[in-house]
């Protein structure tokens, strides 16, 4: 019942106000009393990045921006969560309105621009409430420093001891010039700098890259060569897109910003397949973009994703979406004649 009430207010309220309401709702201990019991499915368990994932479904960065509900999220059937994006200094982000709910398309357009409390506040928050499961931290630069490695290094040094993994966000369309970090030379220097800080911190924490869907095929080949050469631990495919607006129904479809949700599902799958055909299982892929049910999750895994993330479907489907996907995905794997999730990864690419 609480879940239905929450969804009603989420649809009727300003998107950012609704997001704050959702954070408060998930923090509320009553949620546990009104959620179905979490079930672990043996065929969904796998070891990735040296860690045991009880479910492949994770919450993408952007929902728990300031690391407020990561432990509660892990109680909702998610196998892992990712907080952020965190920048060195606190920042307000872009001017409002900056989030648009495209209800007819089951999508969201945002141009938030990394609003967050900053690395000092977030690190203290996590220190006093350590994660009880797998929790990644997504890091990025402040708006005025998007083209250098400096801010990434500051955040890495501050947060690497508190995270299960670190994601380097080079792909948001809402910070000017951020996506220039996809350029070969800049990306190589950035990876070298972060891996150098990992060595200096005597850490073995996995380092992941979050990549844009709006890249050409030739760029994919170059990126894959760099990922292999630098032994990057994993990638997240993909962030939001500035494309795919033509067939949308909502009056907000031409708003500037990154599009997420159902309309980018196929685009994300296509990008995942292109990367997987080059990388294989050497660099694990976390697939994101349009995951909303067991069938969409199954297709992303068949496209080459080892793990998955969602955000928009949590808004539209409610807090039990991960539990629902887990059951449907487990059943689909069995019905398709496979023993476990690892058997399905990349079968569309064979």
Here the CATH topology equals TIM Barrel
**Count of runs of 4 or more consecutive helical residues:** 12
In CATH terms, the superfamily is Aldolase class I
The helicity comes to 25-40%
- If classified by CATH, what would the architecture be? Alpha-Beta Barrel
Q: What is the gyration radius calculated from CA atoms? A: 19 Å
Number of domains: 1
Please report the total strand number as a whole number: 13
What's the end-to-end separation, in Å? 45 Å
- Hey, roughly how much beta strand do the residues contain? 15-25%
Ranges where pLDDT stays below 50 over 5 or more residues in a row are none
Q: What general form does the structure show?
A: globular
């Amino acid at each position: 019942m609480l879940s239905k009430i929450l969804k009603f207010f989420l649809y009727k309220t300003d998107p950012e106000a609704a997001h704050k309401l959702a954070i408060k709702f998930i923090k509320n201990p009553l949620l546990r009393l009104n959620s179905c019991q979490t079930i672990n499915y043996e065929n969904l368990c796998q070891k990735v990045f040296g860690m045991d994932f009880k479910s492949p479904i994770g919450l993408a960065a952007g929902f728990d921006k300031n690391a407020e509900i990561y432990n509660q999220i892990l109680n909702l059937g998610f196998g892992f969560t990712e907080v952020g994006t965190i920048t060195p200094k606190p920042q307000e982000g872009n001017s409002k309105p900056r989030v648009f709910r495209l209800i007819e398309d089951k999508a969201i357009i945002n141009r938030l621009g990394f609003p967050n409390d900053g690395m000092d506040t977030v690190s203290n928050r996590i220190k006093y409430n350590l994660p009880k499961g797998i929790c990644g931290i997504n890091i990025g630069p402040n708006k005025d420093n998007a083209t250098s490695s400096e801010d990434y290094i500051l955040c890495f040094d501050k947060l690497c001891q508190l995270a299960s993994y670190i994601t380097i966000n080079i792909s948001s369309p809402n910070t000017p010039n951020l996506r220039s970090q996809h350029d070969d030379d800049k990306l190589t220097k950035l990876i070298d700098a972060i891996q150098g800080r990992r060595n200096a911190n005597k850490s073995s924490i996995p380092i992941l890259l979050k990549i844009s869907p709006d890249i050409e095929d030739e760029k994919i080949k170059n990126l894959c060569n760099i990922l292999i050469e630098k032994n990057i631990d994993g990638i997240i495919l993909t962030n939001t897109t500035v494309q795919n607006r033509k067939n949308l129904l909502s009056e907000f479809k031409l708003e500037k910003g990154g599009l997420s949700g159902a309309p980018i599902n196929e685009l994300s799958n296509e990008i995942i397949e292109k990367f997987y055909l080059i990388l294989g299982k050497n660099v694990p892929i976390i697939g994101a973009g349009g995951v909303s049910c067991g069938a969409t999750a199954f297709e992303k895994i068949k496209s080459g994703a080892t793990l998955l993330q969602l955000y928009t479907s949590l808004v539209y489907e409610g807090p039990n979406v991960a539990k629902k996907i887990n059951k449907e995905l487990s059943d689909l794997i069995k019905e398709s004649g496979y023993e476990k999730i690892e058997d399905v990864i990349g079968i569309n690419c064979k």
